Amino acid sequence: MITKLSELAEKAKNSGKKTRIAVAVAEDSNTINAILQAIKDDFIYPVLIGNETKIKELLTSDIVSNQVEIKNITEPAQAVKEAVRMVRNEEADVLMKGLVGTDTFLKAVLDKEQGLLPTKAVMSYTCALEIPKYHKLLFVSDTAVLINPDLDQKIAMINYSVTMARRFGIEKPRVALISATEKVSPSMPETLDYALLCKMAERGQIKNCIIDGPLDIFLACDPGSLAIKGIPSPLEGDADILIFPNLESANSFYKGLMLFGDAELAGLICGTTKPVIVMSRSESEKSKYYCIALSCLMAEEK
Amino acid sequence: MQISKLDQMFDVLASRPKKRLVAAWGVDSHTILAAYMAVEMGLIDATLVGDEKLILSVCREHNLDCSQFNIVHCPTDVKSAALAVEMINKGEGDFLMKGLLSTDRYMKAILNKECGLMDPGAILSHVTVTEPKNYHKLLIVGDVAVIPLPDLNQKIAITNYLIKTAHILGIENPKVGILSASEQVLPKIPSSVEAALIAKMAHRGQIKGAIVEGPLGFDMIIDRESALIKGVDSPVCGDADCILFPNIEAGNTFYKTVIRLLKSELGAIVMGARVPCVLTSRGDGERSKLYSITLAAMLA
Q1: For the domain bounded by B127-261, which CATH number is listed?
Q2: Which of residues 109-148 of B touch A (CB under 8 A)?
Q3: CATH class in words for B18-121+273-299
Q4: Residues A211/A175, Cβ–Cβ less than 8 Å
Q5: Which residues does chain B have within 8 Å of residue A203's beta carbon, measured at their own beta carbons?
Q6: In terms of CATH, what superfamily is A124-260?
Q7: Which ipTM score applies to this complex?
Q8: Side-chain-facing half-sphere of B122: CA atoms under 13 Å
Q9: Mind listing the pLDDT tens digit for each residue in B117-175?
Q10: Cα(B272)–Cα(B150) distance, integer angstroms
């Protein structure tokens, strides 16, 4: 079982495999620096798509030509298209965003004919957080994509997070559905969805996990709080996954922990046929490296 | 003592101080005979509000000792209902019973905002205690008669009435099954969604004093085997004390099936008013009317 992000990187390093990553518009130091360490650690083989001159300026001299491939496409939208095409045609295992607007990038990913999202699939974002004060990794969704997920989208978020946690070796992850309280109340609509999700898991309509909610963060992650309140929860205050009711709460949770709690993360877009990396510039070098390692783990055929 | 047969209510009730029934427009032989039987058995005291002449002639016709009743003369059905309700509000009676007047008029008197029997926000609903043959215990069900399509709040109220009735019958931690078409939560079947909500509320202690499970198909509520085959392992399955129905059609069909096809007995009352209200229909058998009066007296 992987309990630290460094172990995730170790696993990628020791896999003996090189995951092929198609990087769309790899023309900024932010993107290049993130992949340099992974190249040196020998677990990725990037295809850098964009303006060749700019790309070469950014690559350090110790990178030799058989460690990367460069495709010279100067028009960003075309570069993105080519990167997506490569992943579609299994010429690459992972798609990564470089110096291109998220809109342009996601438009190509979501393209009905030529994109990476299966019909009717939900696109969502899950990240694994390493928080010094928690005894294991905490998977959190949706920190970046779904603004106000409905019931079906919440089911997708749970399934993606469970799939990811299972790749980390957590056989039957404990999923906490986060709200401000543990009570089911029509005045807080997410608590109604949560009650349904719990029962769906109980009935085998959502598989491979134990779900409880509504719960607040204390009841989800602190057995002491659970005991004080006397609430019987199958999660026993030992959650692996936190599902948030909306983007604002999930986003603030992880950013708060990064800023004040020295947390690191590894996150990915889920729901696509292959992993898609979209990193925010504000993330630390380490977290960017972990995102790439995570994409390698998730790209493995299972 | 846990009551598992309707007859057992008599012994329990007989050992307690007598409750006072007030019958609104209790001028017909159905109402008078049922009340008389309960009085004769020493279960209750009864006041009949209605036209004295009519009451006395029914007593004569059936050879009843009219001195067993407290008779309050009142010339019309509507006035009798209002007077009966007023007596309850004055503390001169402990529970209400419908006589020969229409259900509409009876309910109107109960629901009257100024001088009825309702507290603000209270929900009036019907609870039926059935004794189905082939089942090992009583089944307390609702709502089969008053609320056509209960919303979530009303369902929570009904669930609490079922639980309260079970407690009164000595069933300490009753098992409540919430009926839907199957055990799955399917957003296109609203009853399955509300069942899951109520079950979770009970799990969180927002509904107390019972084990609540749902959604469940009817087979799974009354038969443990059926539940296990479908992978549902709940103490409620096969041993339910109470069933919450999603709508009046399902509930009404169930209770009529119990009476007509299984030839089983029942007792029924309306809950949610300040006192229990008996609402028997003329189609009910003598025994069922007696059970309804007894049940109301137990809850009063």
Answers
A1: 3.40.718.10
A2: none
A3: alpha beta
A4: yes
A5: 183-185, 231-232
A6: Isopropylmalate Dehydrogenase (3.40.718.10)
A7: 0.85
A8: 18
A9: 999 999 999 999 999 988 999 999 999 999 999 999 999 999 999 999 999 999 999 99
A10: 14
